Amino acid sequence: MVDAHGYSFHCEHVLPVVPALRKAMNEIITDPKPRSERWISSSYHKSEWDKPESKMASAEYFVHNLMSSVFFNDAVKTIPPDAIIIEIGPHFLLQTLLKRTVGPKALYFGLMKRNEENNIQFFMDTLGK
C-alpha cells in the first residue's frame, strides 16, 4: 500500500490542470519518439499496449499517465527476472515492492531519493552505476 496522503496521483482530480499540462508538455515534447519495447507502461492496460497512442513517448502519453488508473500489478508481471529496473519518480518508492515481485536477480535504480541532501549527486551516481 502506498500512502498518498489522501491524494490520488493518477485520477480524475487532476482534470482541471490537464489543458495547461498538455500545452506545457507539447512545448517540451515537440518530436515524440516511439517507446522502446522494454518500456513497460502501467498507465495503459496490457491489452492496449498495441494502440498507437500508447506506443509514443508523447505529451499525450504523459498526460494520460498522470490522469489514468495505474495497472501496476499487470505491468510488473511482465518484467523479466534479470531486468535492470530504473524507477523514474521522486522517492525510489517502489524498490521494495519490485524486489519482492520481480526477484533478487534484477538490478534496481532510482533517480531521486527522499530526504537526500544532494539529489543531483545521487542522480549522477545512479547514472554511473
TrEMBL record:
This is Fatty acid synthase. It comes from Araneus ventricosus. Signal peptide: none annotated. The keyword Oxidoreductase applies. Keywords: Fatty acid biosynthesis, Fatty acid metabolism, Lipid biosynthesis, Lipid metabolism, Multifunctional enzyme, NADP, Oxidoreductase, Phosphopantetheine. PANTHER family: FATTY ACID SYNTHASE. GO terms for molecular function: fatty acid synthase activity; oxidoreductase activity. The gene is FASN_55. One of its GO terms (biological process) is fatty acid biosynthetic process. Residues 5-126 form the Malonyl-CoA:ACP transacylase (MAT) domain. InterPro entries: Ac_transferase_dom_sf (IPR001227), Acyl_transferase_dom (IPR014043), Acyl_Trfase/lysoPLipase (IPR016035), PKS_NRPS_Biosynth_Enz (IPR050091).
